[in-house]
Amino acid sequence: MQIARDILLNSYRSMRTIREFEERLHTEFATGEIPGFVHLYCGEEASAVGVCAHLGDSDTIASTHRGHGHCIAKGVEVEGMMAEIYGRSTGVCRGKGGSMHIADLARGMLGANGIVGGGPPLICGAALSHKLLKTDGVAVAFYGDGASNEGTTLESLNLASVWKLPAVFVCEDNGYGEATGASYACAGTQKDRAAGFGMPYFECDGSDFFSVYDTAGEAITHARSGKGPVMLHVHLSRWYGHFEGDAMSYRASDEVAQQRMKHDCLSAFRARTTGAGLLDGATLDTIDSDTRSRIDDAVQAAKAAPLPQQEDLTRDVYVSY
Amino acid sequence: MSKKSFRQAINEALRQEMRRDPRVILMGEDVAGGQGGSSGVTDAWGGVLGVTKGLYTEFGPERVLDTPITEASYIGAAAGAAATGLRPVAELMFVDFVGCCLDQIMNQAAKFRYMFGGKARTPLVIRAMYGAGFNAAAQHSQALYPIFTHIPGLKVVVPSSPYEAKGLLIEAIRDDDPVIFLENKVMYDDEEEVPDEAYTIPFGEANLTREGDDVTLVAFGRMVGFANEAADRLAKDGISCTVIDPRTTSPLDSATILDCVADTGRLVIVDEASPRCNMATDVAALVAEEAFDALKAPIRRVTPPHTPVPFATVLEKLYLPDVGRIEAAVRSVMGYKARQEA
What we know:
With 321 residues, chain A is α/β, with parallel strands linked by helices.
């Protein structure tokens, strides 16, 4: 598929932004300044970006506890995200949600989610809204191989098919549900699960932007055209633990190093686009350095931002009460 | 104005709100019924007890959606639809089934607004049947409103009559927060005068169904009728009671309860929910903390025992609070004599 230059540049910028954001969080978390849990998306960038490249603000996504990548790919501002992760009142959720609950409904981002399998039912509802309100939008549930076994996910595959919803179920299969391998925890195959619900199945290599972009394009077009839901199975690898501080004793000692060396979506993207003469290295270098500065500024701004006030504790529980 | 049953009042509220606002949709198990059946009849049931009968015929399959028997997915879908522009009324059938989908209510719908920094609106209504008295046994008879009341972000409605049900349901549908609307299944055939036009009853404003000087009775849902009957019997013996129907357990009209206790100095709370951490304990704590000096007698709670709801008629009758037990509780607080200081 021929991809327009601006899409290539935006996609690269988005992937680089996710990488930079997550690597920086890894460093900053170690200093002890970031409260709570943080789950990093490093290594999986091409999945979020390759899928969201086909979506606009009027489309909806639901994410997972590993949600920073989906947020950035869907257009949520990194400054607000960083402030949120630092628990500041300038955060995108005013410091009330944190890493696991970043949401931006104006961007069609229905929230990261602290509950494994929390998103797929919500996405059935968002898809129903698109269908009944005739928005031409689609709703996309990102969920992991771990969540693929949750009853909520399996029920949602059924409901979406029964109601013929414009829904896309993106199974991001990084091989681990927390510390347990998918080879142990997932019976059968994702492909057979899709078939079991009468749903078209697509799969792609999540370390290759072009594989994700092309396949997601086909899958999303199917859902958007009113033919019903689809499953997109993305094979990928996470480069850090389930959460920050996870020693990853369940993984072979060189597994992540091998992934970083051989399956880095950013290096592969650069090699392919510069090799084919689509983009030049200097342009990508500029994006790299701009991104680094932007994340650095976001961290500095977050650290300097005001903390929530006492009155924020009881605000926004209800619209009215 | 005409006599309508509790069932008709709810059906009319849904119909009028669906006519008024095209974003209002219904979903649930057999809210129409008959999809995929061999008779070809649609709207076969209109809800398992016929509450939504005829709405499919008027509004069609896009707005009255039968669901598979998968509570987690469709209650979650209702939450997701509410956050993205629709105003769903989802029917959970028996509230006991919340065990299958509590995450979608407790961790998703209830928390969107707070977790997302005030940016979300989730105009969702979840209707469900509650209550014992139907020989429906332990998994189809519970009065679980305290569980929802405990969860910040939810509003909880327990209507006590057809008139109340219509006005409170319309209010619930127009409300921008998630609302749990609980219908006592034993009351569906109760009748009273209900206006034909749409009207709303605000949340958090208690209704005084009786006014008296001696004892304040606070009762919820079906228990309001029992409390009224007990009050009428006691009046014949010269004991006058105030009966408070709080209408909603969240928000709770604390001010009215405290005002009435300040006047009467005695409090009996009637609650169909299991006794531990129920509304009776909540109201008792409120009064003990805020109106201790007004009390002339200990607070009494009339509740079921701490058991599952039994099946056999004789046991179920023993389980439920009744008029006699309420009357006895009132007489006991009236007869209370404080021990004299030695």
